[in-house]
Amino acid sequence: MRIAALDDDEAQAETVSRLLSEAGHSCQTFHAGKALIAALRRETYDLLVLDWNLPDLTGLEAIAWARENLASPPPILLLTGRSDEGDVVKGLNAGADDYVIKPVQPTVLLARVNALLRRAYPESGGGGIETFGDYAFNLPADTVTVRGEPVALTAKEFGLALLLFRNTHRALSRAHILEAVWGRNPDLPTRTLDMHISRIRTKLNLRPENGFRLAPVYSYGYRLERLEEKATIEG
């Protein structure tokens, strides 16, 4: 998962980043709230880990901005030295999904992070099969069927399609998609993503008449939308 960590203590931020990276996540660190907000305007993250006390704005102000300005805010974990009961209540009431007090044990932090990610991004189906309407993804085999009919996808097309379906209605930045499908800091031609988007739109017939629309988000990335009208008409 793609995580942003905000802490003005560079050593603390790097420790958090290292723990999350070793657990298989991609973590980007920020040392000022305004820098994080600037990144949130152009990037998507699956989780935010925020300190409370910052030189330019507070963690609570960063939470308020995310809740008010992001169409699909990610889960937010406050990681702070403020341990008073009143502060915990204030942080959670401000919009934090969890509250962890410093110093924290690495295993506790990872457990809290993983719990938030499981709740926010549950995997559907069982036995390695994830279903989204008429679309069924077989994860062990890297294959997809539409209404029971197999559709031939390359490995990258499969990964891209699954990422989009798992994040239905959520705008994903180009950098987020490239990193998730092609690896961290991919050195790819700009058109690579656009060509793959076009291919899966055609191969999977992601059209309104089939209940889904794959649309570009101007100067940002792409979003797969599930159209409720189809379900209503068929129901």
UniProtKB/TrEMBL annotation:
<feature type="domain" description="OmpR/PhoB-type">
    <location>
        <begin position="127"/>
        <end position="226"/>
    </location>
</feature>
<dbReference type="GO" id="GO:0000156">
    <property type="term" value="F:phosphorelay response regulator activity"/>
</dbReference>
<keyword id="KW-0597">Phosphoprotein</keyword>
<dbReference type="GO" id="GO:0005829">
    <property type="term" value="C:cytosol"/>
</dbReference>
<feature type="modified residue" description="4-aspartylphosphate">
    <location>
        <position position="51"/>
    </location>
</feature>
<dbReference type="InterPro" id="IPR011006">
    <property type="entry name" value="CheY-like_superfamily"/>
</dbReference>
<dbReference type="InterPro" id="IPR039420">
    <property type="entry name" value="WalR-like"/>
</dbReference>
<keyword id="KW-0238">DNA-binding</keyword>
<protein>
    <submittedName>
        <fullName>DNA-binding response regulator</fullName>
    </submittedName>
</protein>
<dbReference type="InterPro" id="IPR016032">
    <property type="entry name" value="Sig_transdc_resp-reg_C-effctor"/>
</dbReference>
<dbReference type="GO" id="GO:0000976">
    <property type="term" value="F:transcription cis-regulatory region binding"/>
</dbReference>
<dbReference type="InterPro" id="IPR001867">
    <property type="entry name" value="OmpR/PhoB-type_DNA-bd"/>
</dbReference>
<dbReference type="Pfam" id="PF00486">
    <property type="entry name" value="Trans_reg_C"/>
</dbReference>
<dbReference type="Pfam" id="PF00072">
    <property type="entry name" value="Response_reg"/>
</dbReference>
<dbReference type="GO" id="GO:0006355">
    <property type="term" value="P:regulation of DNA-templated transcription"/>
</dbReference>
<feature type="domain" description="Response regulatory">
    <location>
        <begin position="2"/>
        <end position="117"/>
    </location>
</feature>
<feature type="DNA-binding region" description="OmpR/PhoB-type">
    <location>
        <begin position="127"/>
        <end position="226"/>
    </location>
</feature>
<dbReference type="InterPro" id="IPR001789">
    <property type="entry name" value="Sig_transdc_resp-reg_receiver"/>
</dbReference>
<keyword id="KW-0902">Two-component regulatory system</keyword>
<dbReference type="InterPro" id="IPR036388">
    <property type="entry name" value="WH-like_DNA-bd_sf"/>
</dbReference>
<dbReference type="GO" id="GO:0032993">
    <property type="term" value="C:protein-DNA complex"/>
</dbReference>
